[in-house]
Amino acid sequence: MSAVLPDWEFKSQDGIERYEYSPDPRLRMIFLTRRGGVSRGDYESLNLSFDVGDKTYHVEENYTRVRQALQLPAILTVKQTHSDTVLPIAYERTPPELLEGDACFTDCTGLGLGLKVADCLPVYIYASDMRCVGIAHCGWRGTAARLAEKTARLMSRRFSVPLPDLRFSLGPCICPNCYLVGDDVRDRFDDDFPAAHKFFSPVTTAKGNTRYGLDIRAANRWLLREMGLVEVRSLGLCTRETTSLFYSVRRGKTTGRNLAVIALRSAPPA
Ligand SMILES: [Zn+2]
Known about the structure:
Layout: E1 9-13, E2 16-21, E3 27-32, H1 56-70, E4 74-76, E5 86-89, E6 103-106, E7 111-117, E8 121-127, E9 133-138, H2 140-144, H3 147-159, E10 166-170, E11 180-181, H4 183-190, E12 200-204, E13 210-214, H5 216-226, E14 230-231, E15 258-264
Residues 174-175, 177-178, 238, 240-241 line the site of zinc ion (ZN).
């Protein structure tokens, strides 16, 4: 057996560029870049959110291209509200517009669970025997609410997977140098997040105010490792700094959303 771990690969198909990681042939974890779509202006070009002011027919065309390039006919997204709601997805025909939440999980094969992000951290979770997959939307609110932990616990319970048999990977997100927050955000962590101080680095601004660089990646990593989950490769890129590949709400208020996808692969035809 090779000792070399597989890593996230940069792939391009019909102009659609993405990072993809498949530590097992039955599993796909994907992070789409902003390249290869038809959206214009601030949304250029592969915006995958209908809720940010972009033209609907552009977003629809982007989804068509993505499904084709990924050869993944069904990608389910839900209305994200920075909540701590976790949705079990039992079958692909669930009308997505009726679902509100910020994490979901499934044991359906051939169904991509999609999460729209621009600076927030997508946390990919799966069972080591590929019994189920899940994904969680962790900005500061989701992180403070321990959404990744909640998702993992629900997956563990629903599918009888011991927590140490769950794996996780972290996608691109805003880095602590780019993500300065105030006391209001810090205070929200103090009640439920005993190790919070580790993830806030004080910075004095030019005006003499104290702000904090928040490391949402480190916070979620700490949370999941405390529970016994095992981290596989993560993709440590900063969305705000990597202008050509990613949308960032901290770079510009009017912007698109990248899509993070996790999917169990359908069995190949016999
Ligand atoms: Zn950064």
